[in-house]
# Entry
Amino acid sequence: MGYEKNGGEIMVDKMKKVFFTDRKHVSYRIIKDKVITGIFIILSLTVTIPLFMILYDLFSKGYSQINFDFFTETTPNAILAIKAKAEGSVIPGGVANGIVGSFIIIGIASLLAIPIGVVTGTYLSELKSDKFSGFVRTVVEMLQGVPSIVLGIIGYIWIVKPITKGFSGFAAAVALSIMMLPSIIRTTEETLNMISPSLKEAAFSLGVPYWRVVLKVIIPNGFSGIITGIMLGISRIAGETAPLLLTALGSLVVTYDPTKPMSALPLMVWEFYNDPNLVDMIWSASLLLIILVLVLNIAAKILSAKLKN
# Structure
């Protein structure tokens, strides 16, 4: 009996030691988890600090110029700007020519890039093992790293000189559409690769032709990801300036003809920077441009989430 009693006491002591050891280990893991979580939160907030600093700087310096005329009037001339600065008043005029030009150029670029990008991405997803698809994928990866100024030169050589015989919004749209393609193609390919093969198999078992399977089953199921890629591509080209300098050139008036020189918001920021009388308008135009890019990015996320549901 004494042996059993001692053995039982020994077992109890061992269980107590294990319990307290495990408790200490669990407490250590909880503390470690909280510390690492805190570090990640701090680092994540640190990443957002530059964005909020930029937004604050742009808003504090640019809000005074934003009024109704800012969206409806064209670029003011130097005389009016000098007079307004001497009087300490808001510079008259606005960026209507840049807003209209940006929407026209981005619209044409989207019409050119979206069909080509979606079709190419679908091809790369459906024919992964094809030799030509490997070549196309390599070209797309190389195109993604091409500097924007080079695409501006291509637009100048391909469109400005031989087709429009001068600077034009269409030439700018072609250059920007090339810049959009890698984003749309890669997003489309990756999105369609995540679609379950069972959906295609079910469609084929019903005797549906391959082209209808692609149009009615594959692409609709990947629509949310495709739309996200398109929106991100648009937001990327919305702030590009270098290609526009070599293709659109700019315009002091509102132009609706894409075969003529056109202005755009990034171009206007550059023009304001080079004119000492219009420097104050840099902040307003930059604020409007960055708000446009942020809205496009947020819209892409919201639209993607809704389409997934």
User: Anything to note?
Assistant: The radius of gyration is 29 Å. The chain has a mean pLDDT of 86. The first helix runs from residue 2 to 62.
